[in-house]
Amino acid sequence: MAPPFHIDNDEETLNDTRSIVNDQKWLRIFPRCVASKDKSSKFMTRAVFVTFSMILYRRNILRKEYFATNYVAESLKLKTLDFNHQKAQKIAHILKSAGEAIALGYLDEIALVISNSDGKEEAIEVFSFKIHYFPDGGVVAQLNAEANGGCLTPVQKLANLEYEGTASVRDQFILMHRSIAVICQKIMQPLPDRHFANFRVKYTKEAPIDYRIKGFSDSPIFYTHHKDVLSANLGPLRPGCHGGVLGCASIFIEDSSRAEYILNKHIEKAAEELGWKYAINNSLPNTDTANMTPSSKSDDTEKKKTIASKSKSQKRSSPYSKRSDKR
Prior knowledge:
Main location: nucleus
Protein name: HORMA domain-containing protein
Strand order of the largest sheet: 7-11-6-3-5-10-9
Keywords: Chromosome, Meiosis, Nucleus
Number of strands: 11
InterPro entries: HORMA_dom (IPR003511), HORMA_dom_sf (IPR036570), HORMA_MeioticProgression (IPR051294)
Number of helices: 8
Shape: globular
Helix content: 25-40%
GO cellular component, one term: chromosome
């Protein structure tokens, strides 16, 4: 299968070997260097596509024939939506369009929202990819954990995370996708045979009021969580001028302590294999982590009921609404 995106890496002439990756498997999808604003946004666009492809595959939301096999490293084989499959191609273009909004600085969050019935706002499971922008490539602000009750949110931690070269970003990407595999295969129960899934986006405050990502339509609310969900942070990505945090919230995580132990055990092992000291914060006490936005103690109760605000101008949903059709 041909790679879903064409990457032109010939213009990269950086001499710092930490800043480039020459692995031909990686270069089939991702840029050689992700330091510049342009290459950083291209990496994030492709990361959104590959990440949600993997989630759709691992959660058995789409049938196997929707996917093709790709490699981004010797140690990471993954399934991505197959551009040669007509129905898969439609979904792939939705993700590609959402990713391209990153280049404009307009995408704040994209979420795969799964519910029990079509059109229902209450989600039984959500995979959310939150985007952060670093205008000059550097850390935006040094945040004090004590100012937030001794614990920084995943996005606050991302704001403190330095870009350390493309090789480091590749390792972050590998660990994130190991986390997806672990949580889908070893922690969460399978989805019910009858379920509905769609993609929803939230825009940044910089987005024009009439801006629309192709393939998405207005929705009165982003999403709300079922009262019984538990949540997990599946890891950060930090290319040169952007950042991303992937989170999962689901009613199919049964035991938070066991889930945290399993996830950390597998990711620490994967990090050791990469020769990279990496600590992933996977606290699973309640729904706050999945919100991935700073919150004060005074509004914690409300945020557990309704995770996203209801600003009509900021939320969009994809008309793609997938009912389970595995046969």
